[in-house]
Design brief:
The chain is an alpha/beta fold. The protein contains 18 helices and 11 strands.
Length: about 450
Amino acid sequence: MNLSERLENAAVIGAAGKMGSGIALLLTKELARMKLSPEGQGKVYRLALIDVSEKALDGLLGYVRSQVHKMAENSVGELRVLFADRADLVENGEMIEEFVGQAMSVLRPSTDLNGAAGARIVFEAVFEDEDLKIDLLGRVREHVDPDAWYMTNTSSIPIGGLDRKLELNGRIVGFHFYNPPAVQKLLEMITTYTTLPELKEAGLELAKRLGKKVVPANDIAGFIGNGHFIRDGLHAIGAAERLREGGEWAGALYKMNRVSQDWLVRPMGILQLIDYVGVDVFRCILEVMNRYLPDRGLHCDFIDILAERKILGGQNPNGSQKDGILRYEKGRSVAVYDPERGDYVAFDPNGWTGEADRQLGALPDGFRPWKALVRDRKKDEALAAHFSALRVSESEGAKLAMEYLKTSKAIGEALVKDGVANSAGDVNAVLTNGFFHLYGPINEYTG
């Protein structure tokens, strides 16, 4: 049974979640294309969308319909090819509506796992909790095809362990989409020595169909993306702890967030990124990595305190940022959480944040932020000049940035040395494509 045959009856488990909804959208579009192709004529396609809430599934259907409509509007040339033999479809609007209708016709939403009955390929996108995934996939097995393939969206849990505990005999692969799946081009694919060769090939083929750039990762907890991100975040928090000795948390956290964004020329500060991912998700990934790599110091009391106090970050249903380590108003950070005070400390440009900025010092002359450089063809030259200036600067901001840059590079090099990544290029590809960094961590900017 090849990939196309398996996709005739597919299922997404956790379909209404942040990741599941994006995966469902990508698959809906692909199944609609298959259904309308000459090879798909007369075949029945179904994509089971399984989640626990009917209300969430209703919202998912609305989201998929609106997004498929937008995709169709931007792909009229492709639609004209698909509908070349349909004399009844002349206007662009007619083709768009027909494509949307065909796409929606493949969807089968359900709150019952039996809704996935007979599925030949299962995409799982539930919370990053190993016990939850094992329990859920174990129950899914009772309903789907006995030889079904499983594509788990885990970002940290070793695939080999899931394979053994679920007794799948190589029929599972890590298919780690980056958030949001419908937009992000990167897909980290994790295989083990037991993964079926035909599943590996199908994974690469499906990623190509979905327009994804695949970076392979080896089966070590955290893989490449979170293997770097988690350690990167721990460095920033550890640096903040050292900065606050004799002082308060607020200024130290503010400094590290600003250094990681401005001095390192990243799209957002590290604390904002942790909030975006979710403090609870960060903690879960940290716990998974610590369980499988117990001698690597992968624990953080600060993150534990935040999680226990329900300072969790994440996004609201409308996509806006929830309060986490930072508090947000209209998409901008306005305060930082101080665990000793047990409350947020509002930014005060004329007070403590102004003093923190003064202590950090000025950015190098000619500094340009990430947003100004992201589409600049000469960004490499600008970055080289920026980091060259930092290397000779005596400011606190420059020193913190260079220490951070060296640590980030060491983390990346260790991922290659430990066999998580096959090459420095793969590490850099994940950070530039998945995290939108302008440069990879393994670079020559440290001098």
